[in-house]
Amino acid sequence: MIQMSGWQPGPGEVVEFEASAGGRAPVPHDVPASSFQRAHLLLAAAHRAAGCRQSPWVGLAFDLPGRVDLGALTTAWQGLVRRHEAYRTWYEPSGSGDLAGFGLPPEAVTVRPVHVGAFTSTDALRAHLHRRIDEQTAVTGRPGLLAGVVRRDTASTVYCAIDHAYTDGHSLALLFDELRTRYHAALAGVPAGLPPAPGHLAHNRREHERSAALTADAPELAAWAEFLAAGEGGRRFPGFPVELGNAGALVPAVQFEYPVLTGDQARAFRAYCARHGGGFAAGTFAALALAQREFTGDDLYRVLTAVSTRDRPGLLPVHGWLVNLVPLLFRLPARPTLAAAVPVAQQGFQRARAGYDVPLHRALELLLDGGGVPEIPPMASYVDGRAAPGAGDYLRAGASVLCGPDNAGGVSLWLNWFPDRVELVVRMPDTPEAAAGVPKYLDRVREIMLAAAAAA
């Protein structure tokens, strides 16, 4: 997970893949955007109107061996865009202040390569790609997808970016695997052999129908009500255990990767957690809570955590933003050891995950009389990426998630377990206070996890 400023693509010849519908007009549809899509897209539109620098997109880059075959890669992109609704349907702000939906029929979409030119320096190439991503992911009247390749004789770097509203981490893993599958099939002159994939619009409609039926006293909102009421001094959302120096205001963010465990240490830590009644995620949240107690004296741990809303096998092939934030809350036991905290954290995590289908924005709309979601909610995400399609090739292919400069009010944590390591991606306010305090807190969390791994 790399910010554009830290990405180092080698120079080469740039070719973009332009998708069009051959003059066909977009077809309106009446499926509402999901709660997260609506909030994200309207906020992005407001930022653009105000001239605020932002990066509401997410991207992917990886290498293919040798000088890529443009015909085969064009075929691969066309097949992928036609197969997945997320790359040929979109939402735009309407005159009423809401969002209007549009789409293109799959058979109308064609892709062609467009030669941009050669770049002889990494800095110039990166600046060009960043500018093009910002431009193309913000377009209206068509899907905001930018796709391309940097061709070289030794290895070629495939890249793409799209508004975050239409993709998530699972989708990017699927894209990595499918595009390579399609490319190699096209090179061999054989069909890719992939079945039709369901789209995200049907999921949006189901979410809308479920959330519209919720009321403030619905049992599904009990975890949210407890989470919001537990904050001291009327703080509905938790702060971070160290001083960040921004008083909760949105300021420019800095992002960095923090190594946590090797592959062997991760397996040992999971074994320790299992022996004490929990999983890897519960052990991580327990370690975060124990370190928080040491820094603040607070034994109540609260955080928003990301969960997938792909709740059945049929949704696993869907590309889109099928993620929700749910309220995790638990209190450390009287004897605050990791062994004692793991089962408590596991119970809290299970309760939080049970509300995966209660959209955050709808819950707060009902419980806080109109909303009150922070522009960038503080969160801690855990993903075991080892079983994702193609995960074994991430290192060899140099696969990276790309993101642009952003703002932060608090600290966001993404803990990712890859085949060879566990690492934490941290986004926090770019302040001297955060730079001094956040790594100290994370060092203590890591010490707790390493001690458990050593004791497994």
Which structural traits does this protein have?
single chain; 456 residues; alpha+beta; 7-stranded mixed sheet; 5-stranded mixed sheet; 17 strands; 37% helix; globular
Largest sheet: 7 strands, mixed
Mean pLDDT: 95
Number of helices: 12
Radius of gyration: 22 Å
Number of strands: 17
- Choose one word for the global shape: globular
**Distance between the first and last residues' Cα:** 30 Å
The fraction of residues in strands falls at 25-35%
Listing every helix as H and every strand as E from the N terminus to the C terminus, the arrangement reads EEEHEHEEEHEEHHHEHHEEHHEHEEEEH
Helical content class: 25-40%
What structural class do you assign from the helix and strand content? Answer: alpha+beta
Strand order of the largest sheet: 1-14-4-9-8-2-7
Can you tell me about this structure?
It is a single chain. The protein has helices at residues 35-50, 70-83, 122-136, 169-188, 200-212, 222-229, 263-275, 280-296, 338-354, 360-367, 394-397, 432-455; strands spanning 2-3, 12-20, 27-29, 57-65, 89-93, 99-103, 110-119, 145-151, 155-163, 251-262, 300-308, 323-331, 379-384, 400-403, 407-408, 412-417, 421-429. Helices cover 37% and strands 25% of the residues. It has 456 residues and is an alpha+beta fold. The chain starts with a strand and ends with a helix. The model has no long low-confidence stretch (mean pLDDT 95). Strand 16 and strand 17 (421-429) form a beta hairpin. The protein contains twelve helices and 17 strands.
